[in-house]
Amino acid sequence: MEAKTLVLALFLLLLLSQSSAFPSRKPRVHKPCKRLVFYFHDVIYNGRNSKNATAAIVGAPAWGNRTILANQNHFGDLVVFDDPITLDNNLHSAPVGRAQGIYVYDKKEIFTAWLGFSFVFNSTEHKGSINFAGADPLMNKTRDVSVIGGTGDFFMARGIATLMTDAFEGEVYFRLRVDIRLYECW
Amino acid sequence: MEAKTLVLALFLLLLLSQSSAFPSRKPRVHKPCKRLVFYFHDVIYNGRNSKNATAAIVGAPAWGNRTILANQNHFGDLVVFDDPITLDNNLHSAPVGRAQGIYVYDKKEIFTAWLGFSFVFNSTEHKGSINFAGADPLMNKTRDVSVIGGTGDFFMARGIATLMTDAFEGEVYFRLRVDIRLYECW
Amino acid sequence: MEAKTLVLALFLLLLLSQSSAFPSRKPRVHKPCKRLVFYFHDVIYNGRNSKNATAAIVGAPAWGNRTILANQNHFGDLVVFDDPITLDNNLHSAPVGRAQGIYVYDKKEIFTAWLGFSFVFNSTEHKGSINFAGADPLMNKTRDVSVIGGTGDFFMARGIATLMTDAFEGEVYFRLRVDIRLYECW
Question: Which of A174, B64, C84, C126 sits CB 3.0–4.6 Å from C121 for a disulfide?
């Protein structure tokens, strides 16, 4: 009977050792350790909106210029931005942070972009930054970029951000919904 | 004898706990969890190849322009690209994806570049993207950049990509072989 | 008494299993596995310092140019750099590597920047590269960017780099102190 107890105890211990007390490095079920949803608003300088513009074309192909987005789906236009981040889809809501960085339109046949940027927070809610990079095939309803790092409250974060174009007004304004799922939280 | 059995059982359990059932966070032998080899092809716009060009100079130093690569080893030229990815070294093979992003020539004395880009796949073979960043001292036979993230089939990937210039034709075409070794697979 | 021994043994084993032999994935105390401090020196081309310049404006907003940093806190200026890295704060010390990549000034109301760059080493001390990305609100005494990857000696590194402006001379020279703390070392 003692031996039976021993076997049972060891069996239970083994079971336990596979459970959450000993997390495996590659969880099969990918449950985010943190999830955040934001909106950000991009108003591109077009020669007439100097005051409201949050973004400007700073690079363009030889056939383009820095005031009007180039033809061929803006291929080659490089934009620098400092966009307000809001909790809802209203441009005039109180910003909770800034989305800062660059994007380039990078395909002649269709709208696609490549993004390198950060979310910068300095509020009571969040302090720190989340860094992103990735391709944005922006005609798709949703598309994923990588969370490549974070600082402050988001120290060492990694994950996926799902972008969705929430609004698009001509060539002067767009609003992205960003659904951030972190899978590495420290 | 019962005590001996207990000691033996615990010893075996301890051994087991050090083995693959409980992977250590820092493997001493760095074996990739995934390996992929691709080629991509960059045809730079030079004022006469508008139709075939897959890349264009969109930023240049004060002494340069956006049609001809600048002197001093192209220092300061910033290029946006949307290059076909192929499985072999033939430009005319069926593309399996697109390499999209930017590179900048960043040294006056010798050719070097800095890259931020993505491989974007949407085929039966691969769906998703791999994101890269890093320095490319392109006169070296091989050089390593970082895989900083991935999406879709490459969810949360990290690793190293070894670049090799496979062909170089004047200032209009180059082909890179990219040997991707992922060390974090989810 | 045998049962008591069993309980004690299992209790000890459980204790052991929580200790360093089985590292948890999310250490509560974040101790770097590697720490490095460097300085790098940026001399921006201004039309008169062609020989000494290590950086050049290659993108600018419509209202700017590539020789003089734009007004509105240089918003939209995109700079390519190849800056010497030194161990101390002396520009004329022997460089131990190069800081290469891009930065963009990205806010109209105050100086802030976004950085994508690499430290490239090829000495007896260090061989390999460290890749960085992040926001640099450069009026803050210190600010953190992400170490998003590494190669060679810094294979697969991740961590945080704390930037501090160590000197600033008009619009032609600045020196950053970079305190690199890696939290993932392979």
Answer: C126
